Amino acid sequence: MGRRRRIPRNWRREIPDLLLELDDEGIDVELFFQLERTVTFKLTTLLSDANELHKVIVDPNVDVSPFIARLGHAFLPGAVYQLEEYGLPRMISRKIHRSGAMNFNDPSLDLPTAIKAFQSIGLETISKIPSLSRFDVYVLKFFYEGITQDPIKS
């Protein structure tokens, strides 16, 4: 299976598993994220421009904007992609999603709504998710410090 199939599986597969598959193609973790940044910004911008030109010049009924939007956040749920900017790795988001504590596949879950949900649920409750490691909880403490007014007590 070629590289073209890896990024769409970003949310369903663990990054270490994707990297193992890509190792034979010479793609390490650093290159993986560099390629992801290129796809999510440069390629998305190019395709968006081409889409607009195609609608004006060729056929106004053809619109690939939904695909471009998904590509723009690396085929991750939008809130998951944006939460990474707040310091919450997608691997932790996936564990929270799989636990049922939050539904990141809900298309109405945008960044402000996700942050409010995290604030409402609270670190203490989130920390009890069985699949979260001690390191995951450590990362979550820093994440919560960034989204809450009260300092988190260790």
Keywords:
single chain, 0% strand
Low-confidence stretches: none
**Number of discrete helical segments:** 8
Sum up the overall morphology in one term. globular
Q: How many structurally independent domains?
A: 2
Mean pLDDT: 88
Helix amount:
55-70%
- Tell me the total number of β-strands: 0
Largest sheet: none
Explain how this protein is built.
The chain is mainly alpha-helical and about 150 residues long. It folds into 2 domains: about 1-75, no CATH class; about 75-154, no CATH class. Helices cover about 60% and strands about 0% of the residues. It is built from 8 helices and no strands. The protein has helices spanning about 15-25, 30-55, 65-70, 80-85, 90-100, 110-120, 125, 135-145. Helix 2 (about 30-55) packs antiparallel against helix 3 (about 65-70). The radius of gyration is 18 Å and the shape is globular. The N and C termini lie far apart (about 45 Å). The mean pLDDT is about 90.
Indicate the topology.
Elements: H1 15-23, H2 29-57, H3 65-72, H4 78-85, H5 90-99, H6 111-121, H7 123-126, H8 134-147
Helix pairs in contact: 2-3
